[in-house]
Amino acid sequence: MSHVAYREEPLELEADYVVVGSGAGGAAAAVVLARAGAEVAVVEAGAWRDPEDYPFSSYGTMRDLMDDWGGTVTRGRAFWPIVQARTVGGTTVINSAICVRTPGDIFRQWERDHGAGDLEEAVLRHQDRLEAELSVEEVPPDARGRSNELAAIGDASAGYGGHVMRRYVKGCLGSGQCLQGCTKRRKQSTNLNYLPEVLERGGHVVSCAPVKRILLAGNRATGVTGRFRHPGSGRRGAAFSVRARKAVLVAASATHSPALLQRSGVKSPALGELFRAHPGTGIFGCYDEPVDMNVGATQGWASTRFRSEPGTKLETLAIPLELVASRLSGGGRQLMRRLEEYRHICMWVHACRAESTGTVRNGLFDKPAVRYTLDRADMERFRIGMHLVGKWHFAAGAKAIIPGIHGMPYKLGPDQVDLLLEAPLDPRKYIAILSHLFGGCAMGADPKRSVCDPNGRVHGYDGLVVADASVIPTNLGVNPQHTIMALASVFAERLV
Amino acid sequence: MRWLIRSAICALYPGSDRLPSVEELELDRFLEQIRRESSTLFWTGVIVGALVFTISPILTVGIPLPSVLLGKEALDRHADRITAHRWYLVRQPVFLVKMVGGLAWGQHPKVRALNALPPYPPDPGTWRA
Fold first, then answer.
1. What are the DSSP E strand ranges found in B2-44?
2. Segments of A48-140 assigned E as strands
């Protein structure tokens, strides 16, 4: 077993399978291959940070765990940040580990619209396994914190049919540090379980190693190559080359996987197309009582009732104080007065099940360039989601809400909540982020409309598999980690 | 250009009766750290945001002076209005400066204590070698 980090001497390695990326998809695929007796090498752009190494502040998170300092933004009408990690364990280190099974209609849609059938039974079987292995459980009552309690109260009052979140978290202590990495080792990110298991089974993890290209011999993938990068200074280190005896699995994310395939010369008319996301934004509720939203689980309550109509998911989300400082609008003394309310506000969000599609291209300095703008129908859906969040807060007893929409009043009272239904349809008026990314290497039966077949194998190539969110050809409308892990497991299982 | 960034951040987070200003909270040390540790692209974006903040009082308070020459009241009005300017390409770069200032302000132990939060332990900045 071996873990190799940044080095200044060249590295040559060979394994049965090379997996690019160590997040939900990469780690899940790697452990399935390792359990089948294969020698696996996982190659990860970021450093391996154990919980003792995790930062506490948002600044440290941006520096140590985020991809490109969280600076990847969409290019389109608005610059919306794309939230992704760059560390061993990938985004499983910095998300809230929310576990939602793939909805049944998604399998039907994949089969009907993309010819990607024969997945449901296998995906659900792996989701059973993942839930057992990664200790999926509801957020315990004593870890929920007041924000999640209020969300439950508001949900019951508004009739949203919500529920306590189920997460890959074992014995949550409610430390409110999900987004910075759980230093208490409760969140079951893949750097704590599947990647160590890959090592124990004789595999390798090569960290600090951004892959420059997939090596191709004709139409066969034979390995990957790149240059180490120092996680502190960013200094370039020695070259590395990891050869694959059987196959290369690309699981570098919905932005990096299509970009990597493009710069490696992989030809597909669908490459980089069908990029989708759940754009989301939050609304603060203002309460008479102190809510102290950063005490308790970062996310603990959700409603999927509106997934199909109008197409949104509602969740609680506590962002750290230092991000609240820039998220509240205004500047100067006005902003300071608003910040005095911090203890009495909490953020709940909606994640829009947007139908708009974008593209991913390999950009300057090998950074993914994402073009993505919500169309009018999605913007209408987006503001309906905001309206639902606003009503939810008032149902929970909020005295006012802070929607954070440019051009609208800073606060809205209960009798003004319907103004959100007339909010602007211009995405530049909102402070939103893109989480839950899909597509770019979409799977399907038709090589003209898809990059991979329904087993993740790239059309027209041997030994080249994509095993992450980029294969997902549709928007799920629920948190995708469980689907990504199960799909990657299925693809790996079908390789051996 | 750090003085320019510093002046913009200080105007954005001047403090209140109950909350300290960012200037009182080791801002220089934080700016030195972020300049040293952040990517060139990120730091360039912060500089651009600070430049926009500095040259734009004519757009917000109608005074043809850089923000560093504004009086206290005018500067405060500018700091508030620039973050909500109707031109996206004006307010968006300033948002980056505001975010950096927010990081410096909100993570400081003094501010956290005033908001009933324990201090953050130091970020280790370590990894498995």
1. none
2. 74-75, 137-138
Tell me the CA distances in angstroms from A139 to A152, A169, A380, A427, one per residue in order.
12, 8, 32, 33
Q: How many CB atoms lie within 10 A of CB A380?
A: 16
Pairing outcome for strands A236-250 and A11-20: parallel
The C-alpha atoms of residue A312 and residue A353 are separated, in whole angstroms, by 5
Phi-psi region of B31 (alpha: psi -120 to 50; beta: other; left: phi over 0): alpha
pLDDT (tens digit per residue) in A453-496: 999 999 999 999 999 999 999 999 999 999 999 999 999 999 99
3-class secondary structure, B67: helix
How many helices (H) and strands (E) are present in chain A, helices listed first?
11, 20
Nearest to B106 among A295, A324, A337 (CB): A324
Among the partner residues A79, A321, A332, nearest to B106 by beta-carbon distance? A321
Structure tokens belonging to residue A30: 């790697």
Question: Which chain B residue lies closest to A67 (C-alpha atoms)?
Answer: B39
Cβ-proximal residues to A354 (8 Å cutoff; 6+ apart), any chain? A276, A277, A278, A279, A311, A374, A378, A381, A382, A475
Counting as low any pLDDT under 70, the low residues of chain B are none
Burial zone of A54 (CB within 10 Å; 0-12 exposed, 13-18 middle, 19+ buried): buried
Low-confidence stretches of chain A (pLDDT beneath 50): none
Q: What is the pLDDT of residue B17?
A: 95
User: How far does the CA of residue A25 sit from the closest CA of chain B (Å)?
Assistant: 22
Q: What is the pLDDT of residue A1?
A: 56
Tokens read off for A7 = 């080095």
Q: What global pTM score does this model have?
A: 0.96
Neighbours of A153 (CB within 10 A): 15
Q: Provide, as residue numbers in chain B, all residues whose Cβ is less than 8 Å from the Cβ of A295.
A: 117
CA distance B116 to chain A (A): 8
pLDDT of residue A275: 98
What is the rounded CA–CA span in Å between residue A243 and residue A221?
Answer: 9
Measure A408 CA to nearest chain B CA, in Å.
10
Across the interface, which of A320, A326, A342 has its CB nearest the CB of B98? Answer: A326
- B78 CB neighbours in chain A (<8 A) are 332
| Chain A with chain B: Cβ pairs closer than 8 A | 155
Q: What ipTM does this complex have?
A: 0.97
